[in-house]
Amino acid sequence: MYPIHCRDRSGTQPFHLYKLITCTMCYYYLFPNLNVFHHTLDYNLNVVDSNYSAAPDVENETAMTQLCGAINDYDRCYLWNSCCLAALKCCQEQHRNIQTFTPNNNTLYCPPTWDGYGCWNMTPAKTRVFEKCPSYVTDGIWAYSTVGAYKDCTSNGTWWRNPQTQQEWSNYSTCIDIEVSHMVSNVGTQVYGELAESIILLLPACVIFLYFRPLRIQHRIRLHLNLFVSFILTAILFIMWNNLVNRDHIYHHPEETRLHRNTVGCRILNFVISYLRSTNYFCMFIEGYYLYRLLAATFERPKTLVGYYIFSWGFPLIPSLIYATIRGTMFNEKCWVINAEPYEWIMYVPNLLCIMVR
Fold first, then answer.
1. More exposed terminus of the chain, fewer Cβ within 10 Å: N or C?
2. In this structure, what DSSP letter does residue 125 have?
3. What is the mean pLDDT of residues 219-248?
4. Which residue ranges run through the membrane (predicted)?
């Protein structure tokens, strides 16, 4: 049973309006750049370029399902619903806070409220109160913050207002843990270092194999070179992924990242990395198969390595293209990094077979 009235940052509202207003606030605060709805004076959300509209009532499953259908993004809808449900829970907490609170007659207090992201209890004047960062607004390094958001209750018993907007204001910028940000950056730097080290060590080996003719003409050395090239290309693509996608995801607003926008370039990069990763296993298998042939048929060495090259670079394209087709038609989101079980086995099985048979 919910209270008759609840408070949000704009003031005290009847509960039936409070839940619509707060759910609308959740949508606009979580997704400021998502132009799917525009709200009306009767507290409905109209779908852009459509005649459909509905009240964002989180207790009305049918209405929320239809509104989420317009967003067409499960992750966003989950975050939005989580925020709307938190607003309803806040309404109950406000009521309990008021019922159980014993004020000091000589002290002013700021009222319990919902600010669009989180819930704040009754707070004495001249006090800064901290709350845990809500999970639905944390992303990337935000989720690791140990500081939390804060809100200031002024000396006259009102919540501090932003001078520019004249709206009650809470500070969520402290949800970003700078130390963890540096740690994540250092981990990224370490990954770059390891990948760069692999490239630096493999390149001279390739140069030596190609420069000295006695080495260059040996089939075994050529297959070594084939494997080294696949390692180098994979490392280069991983460096590109870390720089263009991972760092972008960590240091930019979720709505602005390549991962969230699911850009074509991001998907192509993921596809090429998956393909090259498979070539590593196929090239290793080919090396093992060649050595087996030398032992099994010492005097019957292959005259050409064309078939070996076709197998190590051509066969990985088959599962990679099948997988990419499925991802592009059925799981085409977040640059294909979200697990798409059971279809991930399309890539896993050939790689595992190469290891087992080798």
1. N
2. T
3. 89
4. 191-211, 223-241, 306-326
Express each pLDDT in 308-340 by its tens digit.
999 999 999 999 999 999 999 988 888 898 888
Q: Two tokens at 152?
A: 């200031």
Query: Is pLDDT of 86 > 90?
Result: yes
CATH fold group of domain 5-175: Hormone receptor fold (4.10.1240)
Distance separating alpha carbons of residues 184 and 180, to the nearest angstrom: 6
160-179 average pLDDT score: 81
State mean pLDDT over 280-291: 92
Segment 153-167 mean pLDDT: 92
Give pTM, 2 decimals. Answer: 0.56
What percentage of the chain exceeds 70 in pLDDT? 89
DSSP state string for 144-205: G-SS-EEEEE-TTSSB-B-TTT-SB--B-GGGS-HHHHHHHHHHHHHHHHHHHHHHHHHHHH
Structure tokens at 238: 């991983």
SS3 12: strand
Q: What is the pLDDT of residue 144?
A: 46
Region label for 166, one of left (φ > 0), alpha (ψ between -120 and 50) or beta (otherwise):
left
Beta strand 119-120 pairing with 149-153? unpaired
Q: How many CB atoms sit inside 10 A of residue 234's CB?
A: 21
CA atoms within 13 A on the CB side of 275: 17
Relative to beta strand 123-124, strand 109-110 is antiparallel
CATH number of 178-357: 1.20.1070.10
Domain residues of the chain, as ranges? 5-175, 178-357
Q: Round to whole Å and give the CA distance between 329 and 317.
A: 18
Alpha helical stretches, state H, the chain: 15-30, 61-71, 74-100, 178-211, 213-216, 219-241, 247-251, 258-261, 264-296, 306-314, 317-330, 345-357
The predicted pLDDT at position 1 comes to 66
Alpha carbon distance 245, 239 (integer Å): 10
